[in-house]
Amino acid sequence: MRKRLLSMVLVMGMAVTALSGCGNSAKGNTSSQTSGESSKEADSGKTIDLDFWYSGGKTAVNVVKEIVDDFNDSQTKYKISCVTQADYDETYQKVQAGIAGGTAPDIALMNVSAAQTLNSKGLLGDVGALADKDSDFQKDDYLEVFYNQGVDEKGKTYGIPAYGTTQVMYYNKKAFEKAGIKAEDIKTWQDLEAAAKKITSDKMIGWEPMWGKDNMVDAVLSNGGSIFNDDQTKVTINTKEWVEVWESFRKWIHDDKIMKIHSGGQGWEYWYATIDDVLQNKAGGYTGSSGDQADLDFSVVAAMEQPGFGDNASAPSAEAKELVMMNSSSDEEKQGAYEFMKFFTTPENQAKWSMSTGYVAVRKSTQDVKEFKDYTDKNPQALVPLQQASHGSILPTDPTGGKIYDALKVAADKVEIEGVDAQKALDEAQKTAQAALDAVK
């Protein structure tokens, strides 16, 4: 419980102030420095200061700080300073504001959709151009499912995957045992529905999907649904595959009351509240991030892959979190940003990151790192996200700059929080999303 409270304190702290760890920010908060000044520093042999903006839970933030400190200690040419935000959405908003105000960071850790949007506006630097000049860069060692998410349709590499993430299932072992449920028997969401009914009582809810569209979109992908038609001229988010899944979630939460969600609050507050319910024997399990593993007690819970839906195989999304550089940075700052990206994604640092946070390593050779092999032998749950990512889906680029995914986010709140009929909510989202798509085609 103390660990949970400390996590909440950290989240609240990040919401109050953006400045945290890894030194002080040179651009975003205090003494702004122009690209010209950085160039002069490089010419004179002085250290080039770089700003790095990112978000994450308590453990992830601390591991990032350790890697940044290691990078700063490994050489004298560059110094990274960090600024943390409450979540990925806030990072995107702050980066946009920074670009507009001339105080953008040099490096940012972002969701794929946010990075795609910035790149489509020409605001991100060309990481691939620097990698092409680097004989030590090992592109083929990056898992394609993650690396390709930072490459646009013209072949420009605008981001390097810092890590992969996919949402897996964490279940309360005692709750499953008491209800006579075996995790290996849950092959579909309908199997999970039956399990949740057995578990639900006055003292325990059967299951807690994580608030937001992601869980339900994953289930749609595992029901054979898609976001666009084949030539991406039409949004397909109100088809029967979508309605069937989203209406099931509405029914489970509002009618059957065998599932529930936590919503709202500051930053990751809803996320930790969901985790707490399972650890405190108030819920049979929840669907959450691979990165939750650092905050879980595996004497209480165990992990399993997301199931399929109906007769369809499991195909949840596997998403990369992208390290990107700003086009507004000087050439020297971009080179420093690239060197940091390489450092963050060495097999050794990926092993450290994955073991500490539970997120999926993006380098194939991470599995050859002795410490990682020893760790996964003793902690088999750490392999569940990697196994799921191997058959995961890649969410398509939103060509509208995020308006389609925003429409889904609104629809998800209507279904999960308000209990609105899924067909109605998705029809409204379809209308908004299609209009946005038509405007850019």
Secondary structure: elements and pairs:
Layout: H1 2-16, H2 35-44, E1 48-55, H3 58-74, E2 78-85, H4 88-101, E3 107-111, H5 112-120, H6 127-132, H7 144-147, E4 159-165, E5 167-172, H8 173-178, H9 189-199, H10 213-221, H11 240-255, H12 269-279, E6 285-289, E7 301-304, E8 319-325, H13 331-344, H14 347-357, H15 370-378, H16 384-389, H17 403-418, H18 422-440
Parallel strand pairs: 1-2, 1-3
Antiparallel strand pairs: 3-8, 4-8, 5-6, 5-7
Helix pairs in contact: 3-14, 10-11, 14-15, 17-18
Summary keywords:
single chain; 441 residues; alpha/beta; D-Maltodextrin-Binding Protein, domain 2; 2 domains; five-stranded mixed beta sheet; three-stranded antiparallel beta sheet; 18 helices; 8 strands; globular; disordered N terminus
Outline the structure in words:
There is one protein chain. By secondary structure, the protein is of the alpha/beta class. It has two domains: 234 residues, 3-Layer(aba) Sandwich (D-Maltodextrin-Binding Protein, domain 2); 193 residues, Periplasmic binding protein-like II (D-Maltodextrin-Binding Protein, domain 2). Helices cover 46% and strands 11% of the residues. It has a five-stranded mixed β-sheet. The chain has a three-stranded antiparallel β-sheet with strand order 6-5-7. β1, α3 and β2 form a beta-alpha-beta unit. α10 packs across α11, α14 packs parallel to α15 and α17 runs antiparallel to α18.
